[in-house]
Structure formats: C-alpha cells, structure tokens
Amino acid sequence: MENLDVLVLKTLYEWRSRGESAVLATVTRTWGSSPRPLGSIMALHESGSVVGSVSGGCIEDDLIRRYSGNAQRENPALPPEAPRSVQYGVSAEEAHRFGLPCGGTLELVLEFNPDAERLKALLDELSRGRLVLRSLCLQTGEVGLSPTSAQAALTLTDSHLTSCFGPGYRMLLIGAGQMAEYLASMARFCGFQVTVCEPRPEYRYGWGLSDVPVLTQWPDDVVKAFGADRRSCVIALTHDPKMDDLALMEALTTEAFYVGAIGSRRNHASRKGRLIEHFGYTEHALERLRGPVGIFIGSKTPAEIAVSIMSEVLAVKNGVTLPRDLEVAYAKTLSEKGRIDP
Questions:
Q1: What are the tens digits of pLDDT across the range 72-104?
Q2: SS3 letters for the chain?
Q3: 236-260, pLDDT tens digit by residue?
C-alpha cells in the first residue's frame, strides 16, 4: 500500500491532468479532540469520489454534498477560484452532526482545481526521495515548491498555507521467512514500501507476497543499493550472523531512522561484541542499533512478534519515546526476576 499523501496527490494529478474538476482539502487547525492530525489531506472529484480523509466520514459527506458536480450544477458559482477556509464542530450540535469527538473543532483549507503541472512537479520531487515544502497563496491559489532538508510542521498565516511533503516511508527486511511476511504485510498497510533481501533460494521458494520484491544479492550490496534515508528502516531477521551483520554494518552508515535485528538478549550482546572486536565499532557507534527489536507484549508466535516490531518502528517514526518497561531486554530481565508477569 502506498503512502497515503502520495496516493492522494497522484490521484488528484490524474484527475486534473484530464481536465476534471477537483478539490484538495487540508486539515489546518484543530481544537480539542480531532479524528485526523494537522496536515491530513483529501481529494474530492467532481463526481463525488474521494481519496484520503479529513475526518471519520461525516465531514467528507458534507464536502461531497457542497462541492461535487451535483452542487456545481445547482449553483454554477461554486466553487470559487480562490482557496476557502471552513470550520466544522463549532457548536455541540454541529460536532454531533459531523461525528467529531466531544469539544472537537476542525478547520480545513479547500483548494479548488489545483494546477496539474505543479502537482506533477511535486510528485517528481517526491519520486526522487526529496522533502518538499508546498506553499499555497490563500488569496490567489498560486503554489510554490521549495526543497527542504528536514521534516517541517504545517504552518498557516493570513496569506499562505505551507505543508511539508515527503516520499513514502520504506522498509528493507533481511530474510524472507514467515515473520518477514507478516511484518511486510503490516508495513504495507501502514504505508511503507517494502523490499526483502534473501540470497538463500530455499527461503525464497515459499515467499507468498508477490507484490513485495525479493532481491537475491548479498545483504551489504542490497543495503548500499537501497540508499536508506531518514524515511527508511532496515531490519535483519535471519538469525544468521553472516547475513545480519553485513546488513547492519552497512545500514549504520546511513540516515535510516530505525536499524535493528531480531534475536535474544544473548544474541544481541554477541552481535555487538563481534562488531566491536572484529570491525572496530564502539559502544557509542552502536547506540543506534536496536535489539532485540520490538516492544514487550509477551509475543510468542511469528505474527505476534511482527506486531511487536511494527509497533516499535511506528513509535520511532512518529517520535514517541516508549517507556523503558516496553523494551524487550529490560522487560524480560524484570520478568525473570519475578517483578512482572512473563
């Protein structure tokens, strides 16, 4: 499954390149509880088709009613050319009507018929793995694009709405075992593009996800070619030091936001010892290396362990600091001492 923002932009570009009317809605402000975060986007086609989301569904229904082709035929003055700001959930009755949480208020900026060429230019930059700031003039609807080196929060002024768009998140898995299948499936549903490295033919034979590419080169070569950036993660799953260590050493030279390997506490300690003794790493240099990967949920099966790993990946991606009690090594040590349930 593709990154949702990229999917919305691609679909919007396809509509506009065919000359079809469309609206791009962006969540720009929230008060109290809200179902979608700032910067969430949704595209609305003249036919009423929608991709993306700005709420749980009721606001989308109202936008369709107001701004789809039927509304335009009833009132040719809609939609205006300049962007428009709209609010939902100002009153308790309206919050209930639109399914917003108690006290929630949502503000959107609606952009009518975005320019197809500017959408293509943005998508081209994203396809090259670049972060881009998209600035919308609220008076004219004109759009400016500029590169940026770091993720930036949405900003809204009296004159401009500036959103930061990035390429889809990527995940590279070393090893094509059963757990890799579970993890790859979960990652794709979370918007990651997944690639698997598996040079061993006996493991490739049973791979069941036809739309996830499996590369057959050795892990260090695959990691180099993968070109991990700050929106990438690399996870070693083979339990084979010859494969996992090669991948991890190469991944640690990149900006990947998450680098880790599966294994027991003893295996992880042995791995760090090998890297320090034979390859000149220091404890400081290995601080980014996560292991055993995942959070402590008492997982036993491959599917449960994949849930554990995916949860930690998402927490790191979203900038959430997990309590120490959820670290696998720490929690298992406490469990063995009888301080928490196993």
A1: 544 544 455 789 999 887 555 555 565 555 556
A2: CCCHHHHHHHHHHHHHHCCCCEEEEEEEEEECCCCCCCCCEEEEECCCCEEECCCCCHHHHHHHHHHCHHHHHHCCCCCCCCCEEEEECCCHHHHHHCCCCCCCEEEEEEEECCCHHHHHHHHHHHHCCCEEEEEEECCCCCEEEEEECCCCCCEECCCEEEEEECCCCEEEEECCCHHHHHHHHHHHHCCCEEEEECCCHHHHCCCCCCCCCEECCCHHHHHHHHCCCCCEEEEECCCCHHHHHHHHHHHCCCCCCEEEECCCHHHHHHHHHHHHHHHCCCCCCCCCEECCCCECCCCCCHHHHHHHHHHHHHHHHCCCCCCHHHEHHHHHHHHHCCCCCC
A3: 999 898 899 999 999 999 999 999 9
